[in-house]
Amino acid sequence: MHKSKSIGIVSLGCPKALVDSERIMTQLRSEGYDLVPSYKNADLVIVNTCGFIDSAVEESLDAIGEALAENGKVIVTGCLGAREDEILARHPQVLQITGAHAYEAVVESVHRHLPPPHDPFTDLVPPQGIKLTPRHYAYLKIAEGCSHRCSFCIIPSLRGDLVSRPVGEVMNEAERLVESGVRELLVVSQDTSAYGVDLKYRTGFWDGRPLKTRFYELAEALGDLGIWIRLHYIYPYPHVDEVIPLMAEGKILPYLDVPFQHADPHILGLMKRPASTENTLERIRVWRSICPDLTLRSTFIVGFPGETEASFESLLAFLEEAQLDRVGCFAYSPVKGAAANNLPGAVPEEIKEERLARFMEKQAAISAQRLQSRIGAREYVLIDEVVDEGAVGRSRADAPEIDGLVFIDDATHLQTGDWVEVEIEEADEHDMWAHLI
Ligand code: SF4
Questions:
Q1: Number of structural domains the chain divides into
Q2: Secondary structure (DSSP) of 389-424
């Protein structure tokens, strides 16, 4: 179990500086840092300064001094950062100074002085995502904790039951991210489809209108922001059907990340999975009938205690039937403190590895075939990076860090964050190659 790491932010200056502070806070929060409103409880303090007029400079220098006196570990960013000599003359102890809108540098500096509390068992954001989220996409965390009690998981004991963030607060954050240049929001929480259950779907306010704290209403409101909205960590509850038309209409991305973990009813029962009694294949069929372009991503665990050859084979049969697009799979390994550790029927390591290999072989063929079927199609791509040979982006079917990439030749004139239309020329089992239309 890791100790949480806490950061205080002092934000001075104009609305633009506030957007930077929000951006920094969102990034740090999605990486698992706690944000605290006092110097005393913070492990480190960020001061976002203003250098517009003399009185603002003085106020900023005073704020840095106060943070140093009260806390001691201080990173300075914002407009005053351009006057590094002046800051250092007064406050030589600051850890690092960066300029305005240098939010990546600030987050990097935090990583250096207070490494992220990454925990592979509890983190929502993939470890690669921790390095830095580029400016054109961002994680939007809508809740903390989880009210389920999956037997292999320790998140509820670490983070407590589900606590949804008020819908107005979530929407304001989303809107600010869009204003700061974000083109894609990745909606995350431990159980995104349960959003608002703890608040009994309380009606909040956003943009002067009432808005329910509920999965569908949030997805619809986010869909009005005009950027890509991607939903992660959804469970196959019946009410998830409601958001599929939003995908078919193009309001949110036709993409669902549903961590099924297994398909055999007995194993799902032992895992105590949410929605384990749902008829998942029927649910998938309904989703695809409403939105044929839907991309389904999932993760699975093989070799869970009690998994027999027959239950493993029923998982393979499910894969064949479900035809999922993107899949991750892990051999079960016990997590300290998880209830599943006491289950009988531990699967020997070599059988776990053998099942993992059989699982991956089966799914690789399915994923490859599904990607091949996209050759010749026209798709929208969001550009992640421009390199010497061309541009690299992602289609609507690909989440950053975990899914595939689209490589586009002769596209060095593009910029990160551009949306372009391409025609797919080639595909392997993971990535695709395309040309601009
Ligand atoms: S749904 Fe299950 S696996 Fe996911 S956080 Fe909650 S308890 Fe853990």
A1: 3
A2: TEEEEEETT--TTTS--EEEES-TT--TT-EEEEEE
Residue 67 and residue 129: Cα distance in Å, rounded?
Answer: 30
Say if 340 falls within a structural domain.
yes
Which CATH number fits the domain that encloses residue 49? 3.40.50.12160
Higher pLDDT, 397 or 15: 397
**Residues 18 and 87 reside in one and the same domain:** yes
- Which tens digit of pLDDT belongs to each residue from 163-189? 999 999 999 989 888 888 899 999 998
Boundaries of domain holding 427: 377-436
- Same domain? For 397 and 357 the reply is no
Q: Do 143 and 290 fall into the same domain?
A: yes
Same domain? 388 vs 362? no
Identify the H or E element spanning 300: strand 295-302
- Judgement on whether residues 277 and 367 belong to the same structural domain of the protein: yes
The annotation status of 153 as a binding-site residue, yes or no, is yes
Indicate if 203 and 253 belong to the same structural domain: yes
Distance from residue 187's CA to the centre of ligand 1 (Å): 16
Residue 264 in any domain: the answer is yes
155 pLDDT tier (thresholds 50, 70, 90):
confident
* CA distance linking residue 384 with residue 417, whole number of Å: 6
b/e map 360-390, b = 16+ CB within 10 Å: eebbeebbeebbeebeeeebbbbbbebeeeb
**Closest Cα to atom 8 of ligand 1:** 153
Ligand 1 centroid to Cα of residue 283, in Å, is 20
Quick check: CB of 305 below 6 Å from ligand 1? no
Q: Is 340 in the pocket of ligand 1 (CB under 6 A)?
A: no
Cα of 146 vs centre of ligand 1, distance in Å, is: 6
| Closest listed residue to residue 212, CA positions, set 247, 177, 168 | 168
What's this model's pTM, rounded to 2 decimal places? 0.78
Taking the C-alpha atoms of residue 8 and residue 73, their distance in angstroms, rounded to an integer, is: 10
Both 67 and 145 in one domain: the answer is no
Same domain, 273 and 394: no
Q: Which among 304, 301, 313 has a CA at the least distance from the CA of 347?
A: 304
Distance CA 48, CA 56 (A): 12
- Of 112-126, 165-179, 246-260, the poorest mean pLDDT is in 112-126
Question: Which of 150, 161, 188, 268 for a ligand 1 pocket mutation test, highest count of atoms within 8 Å of Cβ?
Answer: 150
